[in-house]
């Protein structure tokens, strides 16, 4: 139950931030938060992370559903029932669904967090990144 609640909270935060960006910034408009380090910039990302495989929307939607099946398998069969494995699942589900909503609704993912010398990303991407780190940690250091 908590997995659904917290995943939904991540989705809500992600979608609210994207709504605010979509309705308050022009595409490619940049607002500096910390000079030369952090800014907001509305980018329509039609690819995966860092724009890889641009324009393959249907592929990403299909891959996302396979990813959910893999997460379900790992959670049921491979991961121990500890807090970090639950957090990994929450982060990955919330982040993936957040970006999936964009792909289905807009045919692109809304990215807007720009850090110096790094591709633009969004809140969902942050949770996916940390979810993968936690998942790898759990898989590599689990008790057999």
UniProtKB/TrEMBL annotation:
Catalytic activity: Release of signal peptides from bacterial membrane prolipoproteins. Hydrolyzes -Xaa-Yaa-Zaa-|-(S,diacylglyceryl)Cys-, in which Xaa is hydrophobic (preferably Leu), and Yaa (Ala or Ser) and Zaa (Gly or Ala) have small, neutral side chains
Organism, as annotated: Halanaerobium polyolivorans
NCBIfam families assigned: lspA
Pathway given in the UniProt record: Protein modification; lipoprotein biosynthesis (signal peptide cleavage)
HAMAP family in alphabetical order: LspA (MF_00161)
Molecular-function annotations in GO: aspartic-type endopeptidase activity
PANTHER family: LIPOPROTEIN SIGNAL PEPTIDASE
Descriptive protein name: Lipoprotein signal peptidase
TM helices/strands, residue ranges: 58-75, 87-106, 118-141
Subcellular location(s) per record: Cell membrane
